[in-house]
Structures are given as C-alpha cells and as structure tokens.
TrEMBL record:
InterPro entries: NUDIX_hydrolase-like_dom_sf, NUDIX_hydrolase_dom, WH-like_DNA-bd_sf, WH_DNA-bd_sf, WHD_NrtR. Residues 25-155 form the Nudix hydrolase domain. This is NUDIX domain-containing protein. It comes from the Bacteria. Pfam families: NUDIX, WHD_NrtR.
Length: 243
C-alpha cells in the first residue's frame, strides 16, 4: 500500500491526514495471481512511504465513501499497476487488531487468476515500482500481506482442483502436457503424467481438435479444446470436477 500523498492510498501516517471522502478504517488489498512461463507469480507494488520505502506490498488502499467495494478494488488496481479488464472475486476480510500499526484498519481482499503476459504494468504515482514476483520466492511484505497471500494461495489451489478455472489461462487449443504444466505451476507439485491424463480424459471435458502441434522440435502432440457446454451439462447432473 503506497503513501498517503495520493488520495485513497494507505500508509502508516495517521489517518487524520487523509481526504475526508476516505473511510479511514477500511481498505482494499488485491491479490492478482499470474501464470508466467509455467510459474505462478503475484502482482506487487514497491512502497514509497518513508517507513516502508523499498518494501513490497499488495496493490491496494483506502475506500471512498461514494464507491462500491468492487469499484474501489478495480480503481486502486488500475491506479497502482495499470492492470484493468479482469474479474475480481472477493476473497476474505482481514481484521486482526494489530495488523496495521497505530491504527485499527480492516482490509477486504479481492483476487484473480490471469495470464501475466496479457497485461502491461505501469507503476502509479504512489508506487515506486510494480512487478510480478514468484509466489515461491516472495520478498519481504508489509503489514500482514504475507498472511493474506498465504490464505489466497490456499483458496486458489483448492479452487483449481475443484473448478476448471485453469483452462482460462490456456490457448483455445492446447496439449495435455500444457494442461499438466499449468496445474503443476499453480499447485507447486509434480503430477504423475499417466494418472493426470487418465483422470482428465475420464471427465469427458476435452474435445479433440483432430490436429497436432505445428513447428515443434519434438514429436507433435495432439491438440484439445475445453468443452464448456459439456461441463455445464455435467455439472447440472451432479458431476464434480476434481484434480
């Protein structure tokens, strides 16, 4: 969370100095998970306020009295990172008494899973820098942001195992190896190739494209599509997606 020279942003400076339109005890934090070359990363901004200068944080800040929570999340994300046009889902409210120094601040976390290469990052005026950082090699984070990230990862990994949200990160036509690499990156574990393929094919959610990869230096693999209509129909019949 950047300094308070920009209305709507957060710092350890006393909240009395903030704009009158700011809810002084309520903030937003955004967890944007991005898949980048088979590695799961998270979007972070570097602090500019003197007490935390050089440290990293989740992109977030203060909520205005005249805006909805989700609107605040989108506004802050775009102001700090340049990222827009994605769907944010509310994750959890974090309200530990000592989570913010010298103040009582409750934060509402939103999250999304995206392809990192689809977004151009632009650090806002109140952010020294913005970048994708590996979830497995996080820098020191301010406040309780490490705790928030850990909870977000837990929720995300559970969600991708029980809902086919990971398919949104793949091209329209993909190989089974690409699909397995995606799940291995998000779950941070090595999956048994025969078992994974057997489980995926048994779900009957993939439609063969009757095509193979082109221009690859190895044996060309078959291409598939995710069948969203089949998933919808199966779900209505009580089907449970599970990796």
């Amino acid at each position: 969370m950047p300094n308070n020279h920009i209305p709507g942003s957060l710092s350890t400076t006393h909240s009395a100095h903030l704009d009158d339109n700011i809810i002084k005890a309520l903030s937003i934090d955004n967890l944007i998970f991005g898949l980048d070359n088979d590695e799961l990363k998270i979007l972070l901004v570097k602090q500019t306020d003197p007490l935390h200068q050089g440290k990293w944080a989740l992109p977030g800040g203060w909520i205005r009295y005249d805006e909805n929570l989700r609107d605040a999340a989108y506004r802050l994300l775009e102001e700090l990172t340049g990222v827009r046009d994605l769907f944010l889902e509310q994750l959890k409210t974090f309200g530990r008494v000592d989570r913010f120094p010298n103040e009582r601040v409750v934060t509402i976390a939103y999250y999304a899973l995206v392809s990192a290469d689809k977004f151009s990052l632009v650090a806002g005026q109140s952010a020294a820098d913005v970048s994708w950082q590996s979830v497995n090699k996080l820098p020191e984070l301010v406040y309780d942001h490490a705790e928030i990230v850990a909870h977000g990862l837990k929720v995300l990994r559970h969600q991708v195992c029980h809902q086919p949200i990971g398919f949104n990160l793949l091209p329209e036509k993909f190989t089974l190896l690409q699909l397995q690499a995606l799940y291995e990156a998000i779950l941070n574990t090595k999956l048994d190739k025969p078992n994974f393929r057997r489980k995926i094919m048994k779900m009957n959610l993939l439609s063969p494209c009757n095509e193979k990869q082109q221009g690859v230096p190895h044996r060309a693999a078959s291409l598939y599509r995710f069948d969203a209509e089949a998933y919808k129909h199966l779900s209505e019949s009580g089907f449970a997606f599970e990796i």
